[in-house]
Amino acid sequence: MKIFVPGRICLFGEHSDWAGGYRRINADLEKGYTLITGTNQGIYAEVKSHPSKLIFRATLEDGTRKGPFELPMERETLLEEAKKGGFFSYVAGVAYQVLTHYRVRGLEIENDLTDLPIKKGLSSSAAICVLVARAFNRIYDLKMTIRGEMEYAYLGEITTPSRCGRMDQGCAYGNRPIMMTFDGDHIDVTELRVPNDLYFVIVDLKAEKDTKEILSKLNKCYPFADNDMQKNVQKYLGPINCEIAHQAVEALQEGDAVRVGELMKKAQAEFDANLQPACPSQLTAPVLHKLLNYKPIQPLIVGGKGVGSQGDGSAQFIVKDAESQEKVIEIIEHDLGMSCLKLVLQSGQRVKKAVIPAAGFGTRLFPASKAIKKELFPIIDQEGRAKPAIMTIIEEAISAGIEEICLVVQSVDRPLFEEFFCTPPRIENFNKLSKEDQEYSQYLLDLGQRIHFVVQDTQDGFGHAVYCAREWVGQEPFLLMLGDHIYASKSKKSCAQQLMDIYDRVGQNVLGLKVTPAEQLHQFGCVTGIWKEVDSTLSVTEFAEKPKIKYAREHLHVDGMKDDLYLTVFGQYILSPQIFDILEEQITHNIREGGEFQLTSCLDKLRREEGFTGLIINGLRFDIGVPQAYRQTVIDYQNS
What is this structure's pTM? Predict the structure, then answer.
């Protein structure tokens, strides 16, 4: 299994994580607020289980290989190694914590690429810890959430001599920005979305600072202030930081680079005024301030500040655009001899692709399915036109803004679909068509221009069919639609468009839901969750494939719904490309359900790792996969 974990950069709120922790003792202190994001650089690894050992091989940024480090998976041995400190101690510390709380065997981690610089305020040690926690979670299906992985990474790191901040393991959330709130021992995480790309430059000042001295001097100001200097430290890390951090969240969510830059300048000025006096030997930071005020870059940047514990370690700038980012890096590296990294906060990816599995035999429609693919069975649309069912599904996707369609088909069936969508009628037949139908024939060919075909050679289940589209989808979110259901909206927006709109809002995996009576649960996948908006959207907490009524009553009922009503899968999803890694794991280890590779259990794992939002679709679904349902669909769909 392949895993990537980025580094972490603190945009706003440095030191407020530990400062907020003092609320355990002094409740009058303000909470801590940090705004962090993952970097575009990180640690790449291939991981697999091992029967008895923890094995770690590392590749540093310069290509240097370290290891293999090997230890038996024994608590005492792991703890002893963690206490030694050093590179492998982080791996051993996390393994110790996981083994203390879970029954796991060993793990082999091959860190084959690292493009994250060490010692640059980017929390490379935290990234290693998250990598190990995530590897155990995914290999042994420990059902940790991202928050759980973050917590075990933190526990693992503090098992070593390292004394990291509580925000460092926020890199577990990937390269999207998050707001972390620190209230004593309690932490809240809010994920953020930016509407347009924002461009940053991270700079290694190539100077020296003493982080231990900075932390020592600042911590002396807590939990109670004895003089004005200590009061100023608490004021900056408390109410001043609270105001700036919340304004920065608003600016990021509006994609306002200029406002973010202004807030960076304000944060640095307030930091200097209130914290420099507490540790002048380290926080006066002449190298940092020389760079922040370096004239040649001023026309290209909109703001900047120190990074991490501050001092002469690293700096960050937000710049006007991608071109400015390149120029700033060129100037700093050429003029000042400092090394730079790019950071781009990317807007949520727009969903442009749809996958429709259409490779099944149609067993329940035999012998008709021997003569014609079930996806090509005719239906009558709302305009009274006869067309194959698959065409209405494709039209639904395109109406929602999808640009490309992937049909997953058997190799023997591909010519059938290509003939329909990609080949005009023979001229003698074309001439018999009305002018309207001749124009419609061109419309079919235009649809065909958007369609791509992926072959599923063996029919190994719905999950396997989805996995076949992995290479075509790439690293993009995609719309997944069933090939044997058609849909009709009750509103002006199509069912797929409703789903796309909610995805744009929440920025995570989403699926359509339908309110369904208990007696029909055996036909559908079912979910439960916690309402975000009552009778509209919910945070999904469990998936169950065609559950029995007894199980549904005990585990799947959603608060506020009538006792005999449940939420079932509507048949439309928007999924992150991470689903393919989970499916690959199932296929590689031959984990089948009912003899096939299913999707539902993989969706539940994706939910645990990334979160899932369910939307009750304002519309109807029509099944064409069984005879009586197909008959009813032909009757009802035209009038829907």
Answer: 0.75
